[in-house]
Structures are given as structure tokens and as C-alpha cells.
Amino acid sequence: MTYQVEVLILTSDLDFATDRVCRELTRRGTTFLRLNRERLPEVLVALDPVEPRLTCRNDDLTWTVGPELRSVWWRQGTFDRNVAGGGATLQDQLERSQWSAFMRSMMAFGRARWFNHLSAVYRAETKAVQLAEAARVGFHVPRTVMTNDPGINPPAADGQLVAIKSVDTLLLRDGPDQLFGYTSIMAWNDAAVPELTAAPLTVQQALLEKIDLRVTVVEDRLWCTSIKRGGTGIQGDWRLTAKDQLEIVDHVLSHEDADRCRELVASLGLRYGAIDLAMAAGRTWFIEVNPTGEWGWLDSETRPIAAAIAEALSCPQ
Questions:
Q1: What does the alpha-carbon distance between residue 136 and residue 264 come to, in Å, rounded to a whole number?
Q2: Which of 90-94, 112-116, 120-124, 172-176 has the lowest mean pLDDT?
Q3: pLDDT for 288-312, tens place per residue?
Q4: Domain range spanning residue 171?
Q5: Residues 165 and 178 both lie in one domain
Q6: 270-273 — which CB contacts under 8 Å span 24+ positions?
Q7: Residues 167, 203: contact at Cβ < 8 Å?
């Protein structure tokens, strides 16, 4: 049996949120093909990049990606943060590099609507670009410097505590252990050690009395939630709080901030974005935007994010 693909989904086995989108696409009768990068060796593929046309075979089923393709849902970053270390075999290195390149080759389907296009994801994942664009559209942005110089006195410090962050998402491996970097609140003097010269970090004005907001944008639609614990804001990085202690509540953004969110996503060339904001000192502050950010934990009857994504993917060009 052969299927003519209308929506191409490029993701991974662990992307459980996209399972919801797949169910919505099935309910709508939209023909889609989901390719999980871990399972690619199990599929026989052939790509003609000029036509362009992609054929995928698995057992007695065939999927053809061609003129009928409406959209592509790209659920991966463009920076390889999964540091393998020196233990990867030659076979592992071969498969990883060549399948990554093959997935990027789907950019040959340039007439499809991408959520989001790789070139836009690459740019939007760069924190310096995010901060500059957020300031341009009118958000308040914490005073920031990216540095490896322990001898400077960052404007963000000014005698106050600072937020220390990585320049990019920090994911490291130490043998069997996987290490992730979170935001730390500290005095600049505690961070300004000689070892800092080895790699830069981000120093920001610390927002100590804050309420975190997550804004999910799908084209012109958006949903905003506040993230609290015990009815109050969470100091530091809320991701370090146990999930059963988090309080996720719908929050109404001002029209001005909602428009800024839409403008920011559009200015970065995105159709989807997960934006982190913070309310502090009577202002709304921009923290970051993730062009492939998680949203499944927010999907609900009052926040039908999966349905909105499926609707956007299904729309004819």
C-alpha cells in the first residue's frame, strides 16, 4: 500500500507530545509520515533532491513525499548537544553523522510550510540573537554580558546577585551520567574564578522576586501560563522544582505583551515558539525563546495546543 504524504514529521522516539499531534492529524484524515531519528535504519529511504521526492518503505508499506506535501514539523534542534565523548564506535559515528545530514536534506522541500525551518531554528537558538530581537520588539531584557573574563565588573552585577547561565543549552556526558546546566543565582565574585577563562558563560541581572510565565505561540494563536509553587513565584530556576509541586495556571497577558510575543516569533522566522517570560518589579521581562520547546505538559482542554498545531500543519498552502 502506498500513501501520499501531506505532513512530514521529523522527530524522535521520546517526543511524546508529538503523539498528540499525530492523533489530531489522524482525526482530521490528514496523511502524515513520522520519522523518528532513532528508527531511521529500519526504514528504506530514497530521496531525489531535485524533483524533490522522498520514498520510504517499511515491510509492505510505502510513503511518498512529493507535490502533495503541505508542511513539515521539525522537532529537533540544529546544534548537536548530545556529546558522545570518545566511546562512540566507527559505526555509531557513521550512522549519526549521515542520518543527521539526511534529515537536514529534507530542506529540499522548500515549498512546504515549515514548523520551523532549520535556518530559522539555527538562528533562533542563539541566545544573543533572541535577546537582541526581544529588546527590539519592546520587551524588557535583563542586563546581560557573555564573557570568560573573571576580571571584569559586569553591568548586571552592580553590587547585586547575578544569574549565571550557559551561553547555549548545556548537556554533557560524564561516563554513564548525563549532566544538564541550570541557572544559578550567586555573587559575581563567586563565579569570577580563574577557571572561567576555559569557556564563556552568560551573566544576567538577577530577577529575584518574580513569577515565571510560559507563552506557547502557534502562528497567530498563543497561550500563557504562570508557574508557581505554594501560590507564589519560584526563586531561581523553576525547572529544579519537583513536578508535583508546580502550579500551572492560565495567565492573561496584556495585549501589548501578547503582540510582542507574536512579533518576536515572526521576526525570528518561526511559526512555533515557546517563550519564557518573568514578571518582576512591575515589568514583564524576556528570558528566552525555544523554537523546538516542549509544550505537551501544557496541552489541555483550555489550551488545545496539539489541535492548533495539527490544524496549522493540515492547512493547504
A1: 9
A2: 172-176
A3: 999 999 999 999 999 999 999 999 9
A4: 144-205
A5: yes
A6: 270/116, 270/120, 270/121, 270/124, 270/217, 271/113, 271/114, 271/115, 271/116, 271/218, 271/219, 271/312, 272/115, 272/116, 272/217, 272/218, 272/219, 272/309, 273/116, 273/124, 273/216, 273/217
A7: no
Minimum mean pLDDT among 83-87, 179-183, 185-189: which range? 83-87
Q: Please, are residues 316 and 68 in contact by the beta-carbon 8 Å criterion? A: no
**Is residue 61 included in any domain, yes or no?**
yes
18, 46 contact by CB (below 8 A)? no
Does residue 9 sit in the same domain as residue 108?
yes
- pLDDT (average), residues 100-119: 96
Instruction: Say whether both 68 and 196 belong to one domain.
Output: no
pLDDT for 85 beyond 70: no
Sequence-ordered list of residues with C-beta below 8 angstroms from that of 310, at least 6 positions apart, any chain: 21, 24, 25, 27, 28, 30
Query: Bridge partners of 273?
Result: 217
Is residue 171 domain-shared with residue 39, that is, in the same domain?
A: no
Same domain assignment for residues 55 and 158:
no
Cell numbers placing 91:
559505526
